[in-house]
Amino acid sequence: MMFGVVNSNCEAIIKVAVGRIGSPKIALDAVIDTGFTSFLSLPLSIITDLGLPWHYRDIGTLGDGSEVVFEIYKASVIWDGQEQIIDVAASDADPLVGMGLLYGFKLQIEAVEGGRVTIEAL
User: Terminus-to-terminus CA distance in the chain, angstroms?
Assistant: First the structure.
């Protein structure tokens, strides 16, 4: 089971440990975005600092319906105590956890500032 908190902007935040495959991980805060269908997005500066290898380009549709090209990198995350190899999309936004990483888990959010975020395997 994993836990997080709702911040003052009403965003559900969790810690994610991410790094290059076979290398030490760093823990960073990420916003849960249920409209994001991939696994994880990170700013390019973090991707560069971690030395994540480039994997491919993908076209994504944003919330306003516009399409953009995303650079996709490979990374390793610790998710529910287990290491997983995932795709990471480079983005200008804060780190986001998408539904790809949440798939197979139950997400509960107490939607008030300071509220608890709980993620548990189904």
Answer: 10
What's the gap between Cα 33 and its chain centre? 8
Asked whether the beta carbons of 89 and 54 are under 8 A apart, the reply is no
CA dist list (Å): 21 to 25, 33, 98: 9, 24, 20
Return the DSSP state at 47: H
What does the pLDDT read at residue 59?
84
Show me where the domains of the chain are located.
2-121
Mean pLDDT by 10 residues, the chain (122 residues): 97 97 94 93 96 90 82 96 95 93 98 97 96
Class of domain 2-121: mainly beta
